[in-house]
């Protein structure tokens, strides 16, 4: 595993036909962080990740470690140790879990040999199976996995590529409560060795597992910090609730479950 690296974004702008989707964003994600990006629909969260991974053109600067990413192709950015998932898991459903991981890892083998069953499992693949909790399903077709397990497999496919920055787009969408809990614990384990950024609409999940939070609104960073700091920010309350919560009432309710503030629009 390479040394942990952080993500540094400066004055990032993305425009489509005169509409500015990301408007001068500055963002610092420290190495090994588990950062959540939240905000109303249309805030620019996914577009920001698209810019980082080269899927849309942008201006400004995006640095991961010592590498400037803007201007690079999607493939060169991926080779820099950056990987992402989308809202719908993309796996080869007719192939086994092990074969999916083998293909992702490459392992210096031909496509034919990767599709054949074999006795030996490469160490990185075995480690990824254990990390994402799919060791017992290694020989099962990916199409037979539960919804949450497919998301874990896709994360495992990034791990075998030695991705050092994971960008995950709503990884718990459609999951059961138990799957969300297991996914949060998985992300905590992964972030011990990698930097993880999560776009999320599930605010209960965010409150349970985020180490830090960035709130985007209208293409700009509205607020940043811990979950508690962001939830107490009057600007965030204004965006999500239409009004700022009285600070004395917030103090009186400190420590109580917060079900109102930062609920997704």
Describe this structure in words.
This protein is α/β, with parallel strands linked by helices. The protein is built from 11 helices and 10 strands. It has a 6-stranded mixed sheet with strand order 6-7-8-3-9-10, sandwiched between helices. The protein starts with 6 loop residues before the first strand and ends in a 13-residue tail after the last helix. The C terminus is likely disordered.
Summarize the structure.
With 265 residues, the chain is of the alpha/beta class. Helices cover 34% and strands 23% of the residues.
Kindly list the characteristics that best describe this protein.
265 residues; alpha/beta; disordered C terminus
**Biggest sheet layout:** 6 strands, mixed
Strand content: 15-25%
Distance between the termini: 39 Å
Strand order of the largest sheet: 6-7-8-3-9-10
Outline, from the CA principal axes?
A: globular
Query: Uncertain spans, ≥5 residues at pLDDT below 50?
Result: 247-265
Report the average pLDDT across residues. Answer: 88
| DSSP strand tally | 10
Structural class: alpha/beta
Evaluate the radius of gyration.
19 Å
Helix proportion of residues, in percent? 25-40%
List SSEs in N-to-C order.
EEEHEEHEHHHHEHEHEEHHH
Q: Determine the number of helices (DSSP H or I, runs of at least 4 residues).
A: 11
